[in-house]
Design brief:
mainly alpha
Length: 65
């Protein structure tokens, strides 16, 4: 017995596309919110101040300064 394929109607396709767009937008919003929380934590911990004080390993040594 062979089953026939049923293709979605144009209305169903639009609904599927809308749902996919909504899901993608929500995922991006969650990602941005998580990044914002991490950035806030870095600022609170003072990582930006510490980064200025740490000398690069490949920097030339400073003599007399």
């Amino acid at each position: 017995m062979r089953k026939s394929l049923r293709f979605p109607t144009p209305e169903e396709m639009r609904a599927i596309e809308r749902a996919a767009r909504r899901a993608r937008a929500e995922a991006v919003a969650r990602l941005l919110a998580a990044a914002g929380r991490q950035l806030k934590e870095l600022i609170v911990r003072g990582a930006t101040v510490l980064a200025d004080k740490v000398r690069r390993a490949d920097a030339a040594p400073r003599y007399g300064s």
